[in-house]
Structures are given as C-alpha cells and as structure tokens.
Design brief:
alpha/beta, 4-stranded parallel sheet
Length: 104
C-alpha cells in the first residue's frame, strides 16, 4: 500500500507496558520506513484487555472521516479472537477506513 498523501491513524491496544512498547516501536519503525510525517498521523492508544471498553477505538470510529487508513501492529490490536476482530474491522471499513496490519 502506498501511504503517500494518506491521513494515517495508528491504533495500539494492550494491557501491559511491554505489549504497548512493542507495538509503539513497530509503528515508529513503520512510519519511518514509509516516510509518514507526524502531521499526517494520529495515535490512538487504549490500555485495556480485548474484552474491555476502548474509548480510543470508539473515538477513532467516530472520527473516521478524518483518516484514510488505520495501521495496527496485528489483528490482536482489535481483538485476540479472529471472529471478533472481523466484527471490529468491519466497523472501521463501514466508516471508510482501510485497515493495514504490520504483521499479519
């Protein structure tokens, strides 16, 4: 995918500092490799387990019209179970966001 001229939302979710740091590192490297300027990207970060409420994901969905694509470390960022991931992914797609997973 070409990220030139796209407004990017980065989404991170995790419970532990280690999990969050791993995703942040991968996203920072991804942004560097793809020359994504800071002003064309926004980070949405939820500190929670898969089954907990995610205020930043809700905010991302509500503001989907401000972005072209959401980049995540893996599908686990949305949910650890693939069927629930697909439901959440669909909420992003319906709202006009492309979904890109760094690690599939």
């Amino acid at each position: 995918m070409n990220f030139t001229d796209k407004k990017i939302a980065f989404y991170i979710r995790g419970r532990t500092i280690r999990t969050i740091a791993k995703q942040q590192e991968a996203i920072a490297e991804f942004a560097k490799e793809h020359s994504i300027p800071t002003e064309k990207a926004e980070l949405f970060l939820d500190y929670c387990d898969s089954y907990e409420v995610r205020p930043e994901l809700i905010r991302l969905i509500k503001n989907a019209d401000q972005f072209d694509v959401v980049v995540m470390y893996s599908y686990h960022s949305l949910h650890i179970h693939i069927d629930r991931y697909k439901l959440l992914e669909n909420a992003l797609l319906i709202n006009g966001l492309e979904v890109f997973l760094i690690y599939q």
